[in-house]
Amino acid sequence: MERIEEKEVNFVPNTTTDMKEFKIRASMAHALLANPRKKGEVLSQTAKSYCEQWVKEQIYGYKKEFRSKYTDKGLILEDKSIEMYSKEKKIFLLKNEDNFEDNFFTGTPDIIEEDFIYDFKNSFDCFTFPLFDAEPDSNYVAQLNVYMALTGKTKAILVYCLQNTPDFLVYETPHDYNHIDMKYRIKEFDIDYDAEMIEKLKERVLLCRSYIKLLIK
Fold first, then answer.
1. What is the spatial distance between Cα 116 and Cα 148, in angstroms, rounded to a whole number?
2. C-alpha–C-alpha distance, residues 73 and 200, integer Å
3. Confidence of residue 3 (pLDDT cuts 50, 70, 90)
4. Longest dimension (CA), the chain
5. CA-to-CA distance for 60 and 34, rounded, in angstroms?
6. Are residues 111 and 178 in the same domain?
């Protein structure tokens, strides 16, 4: 199993009296959608664990982030994938750098167009590339729905790209896909805005805030 490194990012800690209001990051929205296993509970253990982590981040002033060779490759090649996709589709896409926030959510979509948004994912290798998948990963569906809620869009395109291994990212066997047709290196999923999912997430955010109040007493 690949070892996951935890990265701590320092920022100014808060006291429980001036702790900011909890909002869910788009990339973590899926954590709130899991249903509780026990009867009578309103939040799953996954959601509670995330709330507990969030409170610790506020108290101690460190943000917990996860790094692995998979996430490193994805982040390193994001711009290259946007460029590859733009060239293949013969369109111009400008990467978004602005973070969006409302009363419940926060997030930074990759690309914002007039009618829809794009989000790019880099597969680690050909064996993790979703070549035969008929439906998108549910975690990413939740993430893109939050992006749509934040930007007022009703359509999103989830794009998977398969890139060569960067020279400076060393692992077992470097992969080169330059000889492979682009239809086997780019996979798109169309995602429609799910108003019911967003309302459920808003309800869960409110429940998380109540749980956080109990934690900090």
1. 8
2. 33
3. very low
4. 60
5. 27
6. yes
Q: CA dihedral in degrees (83, 88, 92, 94; nearest 10)?
A: -30
Q: Are residues 181 and 90 in the same domain?
A: yes
What phi, psi does 213 have (nearest 5°)? Answer: -60, -35
Handedness of CA 14, 15, 21, 25 (dihedral sign): positive
- Looking at the fold, whether 57 and 146 belong to one and the same domain comes out as no
State which residues form the domain around 33: 5-67+198-215
User: In terms of domains, do 89 and 186 share one?
Assistant: yes
Same domain for 122 and 155?
yes
Give pLDDT tens digits for 187-206.
999 999 999 999 999 999 99
Task: Calculate the CA dihedral of residues 127, 131, 132, 137 and round it to 10 degrees.
Answer: 90
> Around Cβ 150, how many Cβ atoms within 10 Å?
21
Query: Do strands 155-162 and 117-123 pair parallel, antiparallel, or not at all (unpaired)?
Result: parallel
2 pLDDT tier (thresholds 50, 70, 90): very low
Alpha carbon distance 118, 89 (integer Å): 13
